Amino acid sequence: MNFVGTFAFITLCLGAATSENMENAGDIMKWCAETNYTGGIGMVSKLYLKQDGIEAFKAFMKEHSSRATKEKGYIRFKVNADYLRDDVFWVVEEWGSPGALLAHGNTEWFQKNFMTTIPPLLAADMQVGFYLLNALGGNTDCAIKCDSKSARRCAKRCN
Fold first, then answer.
1. Which of 105, 109, 77 is nearest to 91 (CA)?
2. The whole model's pTM is what?
């Protein structure tokens, strides 16, 4: 199963398989596969976990993020806890291009492990959104992250 199929399958497994959601999931993956856009793309997922699945989720995501950071086109991979609920996590992935996101989803490890590990840990539908990077132009990450202590390193990386 390729990433397009996997994403549609994720949507089905998590109970979010309304015709509109399936159309949207298929649309974004089709767009990633066919677009002429070559800039960065991001994905944010909100996951509602079963209480007894939190530690397994954290362990899985440590391994997953370790692998993702070594892939071509990787920009950012973050797992954040919700500020109100200990059973809700936000996963942010950013990739250098739509093709890099598709390649990530098509890795053998992702295909084999994501579908067997994550769905049983979920208490509710996973919500996923996609976005294009750098809507303001320039390097807004650097403007936010640079301080006087890291200015030289930041200037090298960002300019």
1. 77
2. 0.72
Over residues 44-81, the pLDDT tens digits come to: 999 999 999 999 999 999 999 999 999 999 999 999 99
Tally of CB atoms within 10 A around 141:
16
Cα separation values, 158 from 74, 113, 132, 135, Å: 16, 35, 19, 16
Q: How far apart (Å, rounded) are the C-alpha atoms in residues 84 and 51? A: 14
Among all chains, which residue has been given the structure tokens 């370790």? Answer: 66
User: 46 and 124 in contact (C-beta within 8 Å)?
Assistant: no
CA 131/CA 116 separation, integer angstroms:
27
Tell me the pairing of strands 41-48 and 74-81.
unpaired
Q: How far is CA 106 from CA 29, 59, 113, 142, in A?
A: 12, 21, 11, 31
- CA dist., res. 88 & res. 28, Å (int): 24
